[in-house]
Amino acid sequence: MTKLLIPKELDKYAAEYTSPETKALAALNRETNMKVPMSVMLSGHIQGAFLQMVSHMVKPKQVLEIGTFTGYSAICLAQGLQKDGHLHTIDINEELEDICFRYFCEAGLEGKITQHIGDAAEIIPSFTEPFDIVFIDADKQNYGLYYDLVFDKVVMGGIILADNVLFDGEVVLPEEEQGKNARAMHAFNNKVKDDHRVEQLLLPLRDGIMMMRKVAS
Fold first, then answer.
1. In angstroms, how far is CA 125 from the centroid of its own chain?
2. Confidence band, pLDDT 50/70/90 cuts, at residue 5
3. Once rounded to an integer, what is the mean pLDDT over residues 31-44?
4. Where exactly are the structural domains of the chain?
5. pLDDT of residue 6
6. Which are the contacts of 108, defined by CB distance < 8 A and separation ≥ 6?
7. Which class for 196: exposed (0-12), middle (13-18), buried (19 or more C-beta within 10 A)?
8. Long-range pairs for 41-44 at CB < 8 Å and ≥24 separation?
9. Architecture of 8-214 per CATH?
10. What is the C-alpha to C-alpha distance for residues 211 and 161, in angstroms, rounded to an integer?
């Protein structure tokens, strides 16, 4: 995401009336924005609170995240894990592995989160456990592929979340005016809309989150 889809004043107001970040998340947010290129990719306060709320509601035993970045969303999604629950997170950028692990430790989650570095399309098939929540937030061109790869691994009634599905608002432009990532997001949104195995809700939160509940195999 590169811009807000709502006025800054409303975004600020929403943040003011959202539970504050934990100490670890606030520190990670600050360090990412100060030191990491493309820091706009960070989930941030409001989206992070949403992910945390979903996790607490679902109480997952297993979570899969595709796209770790600096680990903010992983920490949020891990909050509602069952006592013996675990979160697997995949990212292709090994340079961010250390900052992720440092903040996983600061959040007291080092035993709850496993980092996987590499190509998600190659790593996903290796998982044998069923997932209660899957969060897709990686390269936009492959959202449809990741969706297909994870679908049979999601439990009935499980939740799939996909980030950036409004892609800066470009998805509503004529196709010839959309960038390649916006076209990919529009195609993904249509794929989900046409998939009767899920119920879906597209939330205009931040850059758009598609929330799906698996209702059939």
1. 19
2. confident
3. 94
4. 8-214
5. 85
6. none
7. exposed
8. 41/1, 41/69, 42/69, 42/70, 42/72, 43/69, 43/72, 43/73, 43/76, 43/137, 43/163, 43/206, 44/72, 44/206
9. 3-Layer(aba) Sandwich (3.40)
10. 5
Three-state secondary-structure class, residue 197: coil
Scan for tokens 């709502």, then name that residue: 6
Q: In whole angstroms, what is the distance from residue 14 CA to residue 37 CA?
A: 26
Residue 3, classified by CB atoms within 10 Å of its CB into exposed (0-12), middle (13-18) or buried (19+), is exposed
Average pLDDT value over all residues in the chain: 96
pLDDT at 179: 96
Q: Which pLDDT tens digit goes with each residue over 168-216? A: 999 999 999 999 999 999 999 999 999 999 999 999 999 999 999 999 9
CB atoms near residue 131 (< 10 Å): 22
pLDDT at 2 > cutoff 80 = no
The answer to whether 161 and 54 are in contact (CB under 8 A) is: yes
Mean pLDDT within 88-106: 97
**Tokens at residue 212, please?**
């799906």
pTM of the model: 0.96
Contact present, 84 and 61 (Cβ < 8 Å): yes
* Six-digit token string for 23: 């100490």
Q: Is 182 left (phi over 0), alpha (psi -120 to 50) or beta?
A: alpha
Which helix (H) or strand (E) element contains residue 146?
helix 143-151
Phi-psi group of 87: left, alpha or beta (phi > 0 → left; psi -120 to 50 → alpha; rest → beta): beta
Q: What is the pLDDT of residue 3?
A: 63
Separation CA 113–CA 192 (nearest Å) = 28
